[in-house]
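Sample pair:
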Amino acid sequence: MIAGWPVICPLYRFHFAKEFNREEHIKAHIDYWKTEEAMAEGSPQTIIEKEEQIELPPILMLLKANDKNHPLEMQERFIASYRKRGGPIEAQTFDRPAGAPNGPVTKPAGNDACDRHHHRIHSAAKRLTGCSGAKPLALSMSKCALNRSLGLE
């Protein structure tokens, strides 16, 4: 499983948004989840901390450095909890220029930075899945989308 800058604990992120007065995120959480109880119940963090038997597929977490929307503390807590339960998880942190927009791609895919990031994702996917083939899995994100989302255009 590849998780790109996930909201791994909606309740944590909701409180984070409230602390920093991020009205857009506060509204989005309320519109989607309705209550803080629902945020906690549907949280992967809450689920992984329960003693119930669950499947623990290999995870590659893609994180953006200096991401104001997905606090690093929230991500690190999940990674530690997942590992504690015995789940294979690897995190890749990508540098993203401060203030880089998430707008349309303005440079062609295939630039060096994009190729490096794509290679890192493929290499991690091979390690996590144990697949030795050239293409261990179909990535749901094209090089162009990866390039754009990391602010590398």
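Residues 95-153 form one domain.
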